[in-house]
Amino acid sequence: MSHSQVNLSRRRLFTRQKIMDTPSLPWVKEAQFTDLCTQCGECIKQCPARIIRPSDGGFPRVDFEVGECTFCYQCAEACPEPLFLPKTEPAWQAKAVIEDSCLAMKNVDCRSCGDSCEPFAITFKLAVGRVAQPQIDMNSCTGCGACVSVCPTSAITIKNTFQESANVTE
């Protein structure tokens, strides 16, 4: 079976759930991504932050372990396919999530995520008998990922906050 005969629309059935929970690229039409992306790599070449990397099957994906998304829209402008929404639309419905492995939750003072958060979405609430605990203002969080790479325990991830089937925006 040649590559042109392979139906990639059901490819996500076999991907790891962790990958499915994270955003692929800003402004991308997720429902059509695997059908229309030719894996040409233009978005990877044009990303000034160098955070777009080849992922499963060669499809591009933002890697927040490397850095943050600046929402420059250069990946969308470089793409020869109709994969992206207009820049006037929200980049994605993804937000930061702090897991239990966070040092502050283990009573170790660490504020690296809050220090790197430019929209100041991560604040620390004082707690009696404990170090200040991180809190995320979901209305302020842009999902840029600046907090991910600076976390010493990899306790922060950026996750989609919508059901993919509900986000079929053309």
TrEMBL record:
Cofactor: [4Fe-4S] cluster
Keywords annotated in UniProt: 4Fe-4S, Cytoplasm, Iron, Iron-sulfur, Metal-binding, Repeat
The UniProt record lists the keyword Amino-acid biosynthesis: no
Matching PROSITE patterns: 4FE4S_FER_1 (PS00198), 4FE4S_FER_2 (PS51379)
Binding site for [4Fe-4S] cluster 1: 37, 40, 43, 47
Binding site for [4Fe-4S] cluster 3: 141, 144, 147, 151
GO cellular component, one term: cytoplasm
Binding site residues for [4Fe-4S] cluster 2: 69, 72, 75, 79
Residue stretches making up the 4Fe-4S ferredoxin-type domain: 28-57, 58-89, 132-161
HAMAP family: NapF
Protein's job: Could be involved in the maturation of NapA, the catalytic subunit of the periplasmic nitrate reductase, before its export into the periplasm.
Family from the record: Belongs to the NapF family.
Name of the protein this chain belongs to: Ferredoxin-type protein NapF
UniProt organism field: Oceanisphaera arctica
Gene symbol of the encoding locus: napF
